[in-house]
UniProtKB/TrEMBL annotation:
It comes from the Eukaryota. One of its GO terms (biological process) is proteasome regulatory particle assembly. GO terms for molecular function: protein-macromolecule adaptor activity. The lineage of its organism: Eukaryota, Fungi, Dikarya, Ascomycota, Pezizomycotina. InterPro entries: TMA17 (IPR038966). This is Uncharacterized protein.
């Protein structure tokens, strides 16, 4: 994602899943989980600086939390697609 392009909407993301093979859905879920883990780790490392008043770190944590929420929602969309296929 670039600084000027908004993330793909949940509706468009879900629609894009329809044409993907099951292996790609599982791969995307794994990729999202890995990204979430890295963002959460980053937030833990930034937290002491944010607690000391570093506004840049506070902003980074808030942005990471928004991204994590979006990724968790996408995992739910992936799960719904897989379950919708009877898996």
């Amino acid at each position: 994602m670039s600084a000027t392009a908004p993330p793909i909407s949940p509706t468009r993301f879900a629609a894009a899943l329809k044409d993907l093979p099951l292996s790609s859905l599982h791969g995307k879920a794994a990729e999202l989980r890995n990204s979430i883990t890295h963002l959460q780790h980053s937030n833990k490392e930034l937290q002491p600086f944010a607690t000391e008043g570093d506004e840049v770190c506070k902003d980074a944590i808030a942005e990471n939390e928004e991204v994590v929420d979006r990724m968790e929602h996408r995992i739910l969309l992936l799960r719904a697609e897989v379950e919708g296929r009877g898996m």
